[in-house]
Amino acid sequence: MKTAVVLNGPNLNLLGTREPAVYGSHTLADVQKLCADACAAQGFNLDFRQTNHEGVLVDWLQEAGRAQAEGTVVGVVLNAGAYTHTSVALHDAIKGTGLTLIELHISNVHAREPFRHHSYISPAARAVMAGFGVQGYPLAIAALASL
Ligand code: CA2
């Protein structure tokens, strides 16, 4: 059974505690449950992680890239949080690993502040999803199955 990797970046551990108008009221634990159910439906194992540290995300992307090359990982769903808009290192990690990666945002970043309109992730991603709320996560896992 292959594994779907879901990586979450900075401040996503705060989901459900503030800004419900933007991010909804679900917690990250709720999101993990949504992902677990979606993986069960697709016949995947789930590897679900969150970190506030850019270099940790780089390490995890490299780890997932090696596992995908070995055939044990189907791909990655990445919500890089604010690093989306700043991180050449994440762009390079995705490009360098050749990962099948879906960039995901809970909110519609294009309907928000201009500084959220640019993504360093998008040019390296296989697909981009934004604005589906936390339901985007199970949608992205289903999409990994068909990529
Ligand atoms: O919409 C998304 O998923 C974002 O990736 C979330 C990031 C933001 O910087 C991106 O522009 C869009 C922020 C995640 C922080 O989430 C919080 C949730 C509740 C309270 C405070 C922060």
List keywords for this structure.
single chain, 147 residues, alpha/beta, Rossmann fold, 5-stranded parallel β-sheet, 5 helices, 39% helix, binds ligand CA2
Shape: globular
Indicate the percent of residues in helices.
Answer: 25-40%
CATH class identity = Alpha Beta
Structural class: alpha/beta
CATH architecture: 3-Layer(aba) Sandwich
Low-confidence stretches: none
Q: State the CATH topology.
A: Rossmann fold
Mean pLDDT: 97
Please summarize the sheet with the most strands: 5 strands, parallel
Q: What separation lies between the terminal Cα atoms?
A: 16 Å
Which strand order do you get reading across the main beta sheet? 2-1-3-4-5
Radius of gyration: 14 Å
User: How many independent structural domains?
Assistant: 1
Q: What is the tally of beta strands?
A: 5
The proportion of strand residues reads 15-25%
CATH superfamily: Dehydroquinase, class II
How would the blueprint of this fold be written?
Elements: E1 3-8, H1 20-23, H2 28-42, E2 45-50, H3 54-70, E3 73-79, H4 88-97, E4 101-105, E5 127-130, H5 136-146
Parallel strand pairs: 1-2, 1-3, 3-4, 4-5
Would you give an account of this structure?
By secondary structure, the protein is an alpha/beta fold. It has one domain (about 5-145): Rossmann fold (3-Layer(aba) Sandwich), CATH 3.40.50.9100. About 40% of the residues lie in helices and about 20% in strands. The protein contains five helices and five strands, in the order βααβαβαββα. It has helices at about 20-25, 30-40, 55-70, 90-95, 135-145; strands spanning about 5-10, 45-50, 75-80, 100-105, 125-130. It has a five-stranded parallel sheet with strand order 2-1-3-4-5, with helices on both faces. Helix 2 runs parallel beside helix 5 (about 135-145) and helix 3 packs parallel to helix 4 (about 90-95). The longest helix is centred in the middle third of the chain and has 17 residues, at about 55-70. It is globular and about 40 Å long. The protein binds ligand CA2. Ligand CA2 binds near residues 12, 14, 15, 18 and 105.
